């Protein structure tokens, strides 16, 4: 018996399974794989069955080519793994059976289509799906280490969760039409393509220097849409010539592709470095946001040729955080440790987005003897790699080499509490606490260390601690010795704009941030009703939870899925009410003056429980409800005059009493583009009483601007990361002054 459900075509369809956003009609929902059907207005006689590849460095998977196929009016079924399992799960047979029965009852023919891991799935399950055609881009022949040996070591970490390789690619020559597109200069992809062609009848379409991401290359040569549409939908006899047309056309168009030149440089760097350099220069001339091949080249030469790597990084048209980490690494490899550390410490967002990569640079800085900078870097890393013992070992080593102060002792205690059975940590923690003259506590930890690993130097430390106890000159140990008073317990309500700067304060000695993990809220009326619910003065019908809450979160405030589970909702309610009751103060972000009212209950303006709709599609009027759920009768409500909006905020503040309240507006730069936010800003900066403080983020916007995304576009909804760091400091200083 498998943990799965097969649903009727006309059944109400949830938009999320296992926390994954899944558009379309759900055909099968298993523990390891999901299948959805995506109909179009004029479906035709053929359906395309897609298999998803690995997304977001092992992150959430989603339907492959869903937008492309829908835009081209091609009916399709998406098969999506819930994790990086390479379709090696026991529920695949049930899923394939359900998909096969479904398409055969509605269409004449089927094709399978996938890329990379998805290409493996498209070929492996073609026969069992009874599909007549396969299109696979850079597919794998196998993910089994006993088959791969040293031929392909990519994705070892992602594949490590696969216990049994149940679905090998079958052999046979029964393919009427199949095409495998790959880069013959990509050694791993070439090996896979050749192994597949040995065991199956398949047309190999080599595209030199296309790279692993063949689809991106064909987009750049303007061939992908036309080729895929024709190959997957034309009659069998016409598919072969279409493949030949692709090769001929690509020869004419390859020079307009940035990835062609970048992959040429990457593949030739060992044999023909001068030619590789020229090819990479051409790739850079395209001035596009994506330069993964150039960064791959940088990483190849980072250790042996750091100066050249640094030169290439400086040529990239768009600096992103990954490039910054590479730059810091190159500088460290060149011996410029102070400059490397300064780059990392000036970019707080690096620690959140690339903690593992940053830790590799930190080790070099530590071993250089730059202990102070290393300690500062590891202090930040200890927030994001909190469960990694090696981070704490290096952090304590750094601290042990500089002046022992309260920070050192605090870190030692935290590391000891996190890893009470790690002898390396116990020895370092005991030594630091010993040097701070907390002899009783040091002796306690060192005794545990000796029990785990009896070594001479730890015994010597214990003797020193025992001698200190006898002398009577040691300090008295208190658990809260670092603080003048207990830390302020702060309860945040808002969006990622608020949670990002608060995430920077997780290690604050004066703050204990009680992240509620219940998504984002925007208007005063919406937040006021939430506060009433937290206070227990109103209740919420569990059936409305999907409209009152929205699945959103950040690294420090992940969404609690119990909210949408009727059996667990009240456990969530009791948990979050306890947090609210225990808090000293709340910080509220007011980012909208519009409330979406279901009678008098303010709901989310764009809920994503049933479907995940981009805000750009529903920002006008009661857009989401007008378009998708008009029968509910939700209406937008906006204060008609400014004073009414101020009154809404005052009513919210009153509901929070007796807690201290900090108000933060949406970010405004004072221009027409953010004119509506300026109204919110002015309202928030009013005087709402002695227990209310406001933070004006406009000066921060003026100093640092809005965020530049990886593709070079401007995100006017979020501060630049430098601005996030400054806002974090402003919040911390304000709470410190309040000392609630």
Overview of the structural elements:
By secondary structure, the protein is of the alpha/beta class. Among the domains are: 4-255, Rossmann fold, CATH 3.40.50; 488-641 and 656-677 and 686-738, Rossmann fold (3-Layer(aba) Sandwich), CATH 3.40.50. The protein is 47% helix and 13% strand. The protein contains 34 helices and 21 strands. The strands form five sheets. The protein has a nine-stranded mixed beta sheet, with helices on both faces. Helix 21 packs antiparallel against helix 22 (423-435). The chain is globular.
Layout of strands and helices, then pairs:
Layout: E1 4-5, E2 16-17, E3 20-21, E4 25-30, E5 33-38, E6 46-51, H1 66-71, E7 76-81, H2 92-104, E8 109-115, H3 117-124, H4 126-129, E9 133-137, H5 145-148, H6 156-159, E10 177-182, H7 187-199, E11 203-206, H8 214-220, H9 224-233, H10 236-253, H11 258-268, H12 273-284, H13 292-301, H14 306-315, H15 321-333, H16 337-345, H17 348-353, H18 355-367, H19 371-384, H20 389-400, H21 406-418, H22 423-435, H23 439-452, H24 456-471, E12 488-493, H25 496-503, E13 511-513, H26 524-535, H27 545-548, H28 569-582, E14 585-590, E15 595-598, E16 601-603, H29 615-618, H30 623-628, E17 635-637, H31 642-656, E18 660-665, H32 675-684, E19 692-694, H33 698-704, E20 706-708, E21 714-719, H34 721-738
Parallel strand pairs: 6-7, 6-8, 8-9, 9-10, 10-11, 12-13, 12-14, 14-18, 18-19
Antiparallel strand pairs: 1-4, 2-3, 4-5, 5-7, 15-16, 15-17, 20-21
